[in-house]
Each structure stands twice: as structure tokens, then as C-alpha cells.
Predict the 3D structure of the following.
Amino acid sequence: MAASLPPEVPEQPDDAAPTEEAAPEPAPLLTLRDPLPDVVDTPAGLEELCAAIATGTGPVAIDAERASGHRYSNRAYLIQLRREGSGTHLLDPTPFDDLAPLQEAIGDAEWILHAATQDLPCLRGEGLTPAALFDTELAGRLLGYPRVGLATLVETLIGRRMKKEHSAVDWSTRPLPQPWLEYAALDVEVLVELRDLIAAELVATGKDGWAREEFDALRGFEAPVRVDAWRRTSGLHKVRGRRALGAVKAMWELRDEIAEQRDVTPGRIVPDSAIAAAATAPTLPTERTELMALKGFHGRGAERYSSRFAAVLREVAELPESELPARTPRSDGPPPPRAWADRDPVAARRLVLAREAMAALAEKHTMPVENLLTPDSLRRVLWAPPASRDPEQLASEVAAVLSGMGARPWQIGLVGPVVVDAVLTADAEPLVDAEPLVDAEAPTED
């Protein structure tokens, strides 16, 4: 019996358009498994919440909502919690002096947070401190995920899509609308499951010990105090002269004082553009009418406080030169990397060698280079390394220096040899006619 031939397929012309593949179906939306709980804002409600949390099992997923962009304070205006056997809870912390009963109910249970450095300060302000924690964002970085936002990780690992349309709302609003509360509850809906998946991957890649050191260090995290915070005013690069800088400083500090008193974000008093406009005017606008005529100096805040802004500008106009701020802020750190080749060619050579080795190390371990060691710590130890050049002694001293800067043991174990090799090699083969180093963190002017 003759074999049957397959049906003929008509030939496609060479210029035929390729068949377009259908776009993949979007992942299904993440939804609440249980009915949306009521917001707890009474002592009786808090007592019930604490009893439910205490009878649950396993880690506690926690998130907090602040009113960034609307309020001066960084306090929590809503706290979301979820625990196996307990369900999801929404807590308004504002009516309570502290949340000591909730701290006691959680006890030694592990907290699960996403981007812990954002929420830990405001939770500590409510009397809540973790005995142990797991940060899903930081763990994602250690695992080398290119994007570590909560929505991205949930879609990647759990296959559910999260909406983020309420991320910038004013959480100090009362009562909070139901769509906002649903959005907030979803932030902890699958955080326990996400933690378990990521924890298993940390173990599989041998990074679970590293992650634990990072999480333990995070427990004591406090937001850094910014020195000369007024220097972050947008448009400062256009300001010329120390008196103009003094104007920016004085107006920024007055605006900050008013914003703190009123508990509103400083930009709602006057925007940065108004401060920059006043500082760059041909002559300092020391009268209210002059200020109000400037571009950007408008709105109710500007109208209400214009006399006070004019008054501080009159004070700046009369200050002696010695009391005006310097153009370049004082720093206890090394100079910008672009200046290293001129000021210390050997140090510049150390940095070139170390950066190359750090990039290779980050690629080997599939994580961002800044998670191996903060760029500031690397620059500091390379600019002024320990004096010893005995390899063993130098390694011991480098480890001590890095530890003093807050580096964890796993980081010291990986990066210490890189620093030692860079120091010893640069001394043996100093860089000649070095190209200026580019500071990746240096701000760029508009």
C-alpha cells in the first residue's frame, strides 16, 4: 500500500508579511480571598485584632500607608496585617497613643515587609519593632531580579496582576474610600506566599545566609538625617554666588518650618521653582510685591507667607560674607572620583581596578553591584586604605574597616579580597596618565 503524501502547502512569496503572534493574555488580577475587613479605630476593635493576630500562625505580613506628597510627617495613616489563620486586618493608628498591644500580640513572629526601609521608621513611630523580618524587595535584589517592585514580583512568581492606581493618594483622608482600602489590603494579600517562594530560591542559590544577615541588619534601620537638606532644592545648580545660596537656604528653612507646623508637604507652601526664582533674580526681592511678581511665586501659600519670605531675604541681604554658605558643602569623605587622578593617581588606580573586579563579582553572583557594598564605603576604603601592605595584615585591617562602615560578614568575605588586591596591585603598578574617573552618582545639571 502506497504511503499517503502530506497535503501540499502553498509556497509563500519572499515578500510575504510574517504572521503576527497574538499578544499574550494579561495575568489575571489579584483579588481579595476574604471580604474586605472594617478599619479598626477603637480600643475594642484593637483588642479583637490583637487576639486574632495572636492566634494566627507563621510570619505576619505588614504594610503601611503614609501621606507622602500631602503631609510633612512620615507617620503611618493605615497599617495592613495578614497572618495565616488570622486573615487580613486594616488598622488606623492615628487614634491610639501607641500600639503596644499589637507589638505584644505579634511577639517574636517574623515580619514580612516589601521595601522595609520605607515602612520601618513610621511603624517604629507607632511602637512597632520587629524581632525578625524578611524583606521581599531586598531578597529580590540579592537574587538578581531586574525589577523588584511588589507588583512585578507578584506577577512574575505568583502569576497575578496588581493595580497601583491609588499609590499616591492622601492616606490621611478620613473616611478612607473603599477602593483605597481594597488596594491597601491587596498589598498584604499574597505577601506570605511570595515570601515562601523567594525564601526557597534563596536557599537554592546559596544566598539564604546572606539574606539573613541583611534582614538582621535592617531591624535597626533608621532613616538617615540629611545634612544641608536645603542643597537638594531643585534648580540649585542655576544659583550663583554665596548670597544667592544664602537666599535659598533661608527660604528653604522658613518653608520647612511652616510646613512642619501645618503638617503639609513643603511644596504646597511654595514650590522649589519659586525659591530658585527669588535667589536668581537680578537683585534679591526683599519686598513682598517684588516676590509676588516672580514667576512661580503664586498660590495661596505664597500669598499668605510672602511677607515672611521677604523678611528672611532682607536678613540675607545684610549678612556678612563670612556667614553665607559655601558653594561646595563640607564633606568628611573622599573627593569626587573624577578628581582622583589629579590628586592621587595611585588611589585612582585602586578605584579602576576595584570597579572592574566588583562588576565581575556582581555578574558572577547575579546581583546589583551596590548590594555587594555601598559605593561610598568602597570609595572611602580605597581613598585611604590601611597602611599595611602585608597581604594577611592588610586583609584583616580592611575587614575591620568595612565592618566599621556597617558591611555585613558576607559582604566583607566577597569584597575584602577585591579591595586588598586593588591596593596591592595599584601600589606595584601605579596608573600613568589616567583618564578622569566618572562619578556615577554625581548629579547632572539640566
Summary: The CA atoms of residues 337 and 440 lie 9 Å apart. Strands lie at 39-40, 57-65, 78-84, 87-91, 111-113, 133-135. The two ends are 80 Å apart (CA to CA).
